[in-house]
């Protein structure tokens, strides 16, 4: 007998809500939803606005983490409303915590990027860091690459990326990084991973984080550098060098140019204060 929307258990509702989402989204959203239900201790259809507000008050992490958690539960309530589990979406009445935009802190200088590259310990790790930067890839996109996704284009090459939102895009890379990538192929077949783990499969995300953070430590970069910082740096540096913002949007795979514009605000090239006289000059 099939469950009707109103008879779904919380666990069944979560499974339906997360179906088709990426592994990272599934892991994070499931954790937040389960913690909410553990606190409310009732079916979602019986939850009140006060249940949500009291749960939000229990969140003791940073505002950024709170914003992600609240966003996940708001998404769950929105899905439940669309499915007919609830008649009104109470999630729209809950405000997500505001957080300081720290993007500017996560953009490396070009010198720091070169230090990261130079302080890797082997050719594969050097290529990983170079590709994260020059192609602006997300970690999951890099880890999922197969040799069939790479095609030669003149002196360089093109990489077909299956990215966030299950969208496919093509990124071009220059001759230098292309040579680095191809040097790793050996006798790999078209269905083999480009970056191979110790067990022979695709390299995992955690190993890429380890590679980047170790390089940053050896380079004496005093920050908790992650692979995504190289994507941020790609965006900022390419805009500084005159790359059209719509081209950057397509390269990064952003759903809207408004998302890409955040890099213009993070590192502006002009400011009204620069037009005022400075007595110290």
Categorize the overall geometry. Answer: globular
Total beta strand runs = 3
The order of strands across the largest sheet is 1-2-3
Major β-sheet annotation: 3 strands, antiparallel
The helix/strand class is mainly alpha
Rg, alpha carbons: 22 Å
Percent helix: 40-55%
What is the mean predicted local confidence, pLDDT? Answer: 91
Order of helices and strands: HHHHHHHEEEHHHHHH
Number of helices: 13
Uncertain stretches of 5 or more adjacent residues: none
| Straight-line N-to-C gap | 80 Å
- Beta content comes to 5-15%
Structure in words:
The protein is mostly helical and 281 residues long. The chain contains 13 helices and three strands; from the N terminus they run H-H-H-H-H-H-H-E-E-E-H-H-H-H-H-H. Strands 1-2-3 form a three-stranded antiparallel beta sheet. Strand 1 (150-153) and strand 2 (156-163) form a beta hairpin.
Fold topology:
Layout: H1 10-18, H2 23-40, H3 49-58, H4 63-83, H5 110-118, H6 123-134, H7 139-143, E1 150-153, E2 156-163, E3 167-173, H8 175-182, H9 205-218, H10 227-240, H11 245-252, H12 257-260, H13 262-266
Antiparallel strand pairs: 1-2, 2-3
């Amino acid at each position: 007998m099939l469950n009707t929307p109103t008879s779904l258990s919380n666990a069944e509702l979560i499974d339906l809500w997360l179906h088709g989402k990426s592994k990272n989204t599934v892991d994070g959203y499931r954790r937040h939803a389960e913690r909410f239900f553990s606190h409310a201790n009732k079916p979602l259809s019986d939850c009140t606005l006060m249940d949500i507000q009291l749960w939000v008050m229990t969140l003791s992490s940073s505002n950024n983490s709170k914003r992600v958690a609240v966003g996940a539960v708001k998404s769950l309530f929105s899905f439940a409303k669309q499915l007919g589990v609830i008649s009104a979406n109470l999630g729209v009445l809950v405000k997500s915590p505001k957080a300081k935009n720290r993007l500017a802190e996560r953009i490396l200088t070009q010198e720091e990027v070169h230090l990261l590259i130079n302080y890797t310990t082997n050719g594969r790790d050097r290529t990983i860091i170079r590709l994260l930067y020059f192609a602006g890839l997300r970690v999951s996109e890099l880890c999922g690459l197969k040799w069939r996704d790479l095609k030669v284009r003149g002196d360089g090459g093109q990489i077909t990326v299956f990215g966030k939102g299950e969208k496919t895009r093509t990124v071009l890379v220059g001759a230098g990084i292309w040579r680095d990538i191809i040097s790793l192929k050996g006798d790999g077949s078209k269905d083999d991973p480009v970056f191979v783990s110790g067990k022979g499969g695709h390299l995992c995300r955690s190993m890429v984080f380890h590679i980047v953070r170790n390089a940053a430590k050896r380079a004496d970069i005093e920050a908790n550098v992650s692979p995504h910082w190289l994507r941020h740096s790609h965006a900022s540096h390419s805009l500084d060098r005159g790359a059209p913002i719509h081209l950057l949007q397509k390269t990064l795979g952003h759903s809207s140019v408004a998302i890409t514009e955040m890099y213009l605000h993070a590192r502006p090239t002009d400011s009204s204060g620069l037009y005022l006289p400075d007595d110290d000059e």
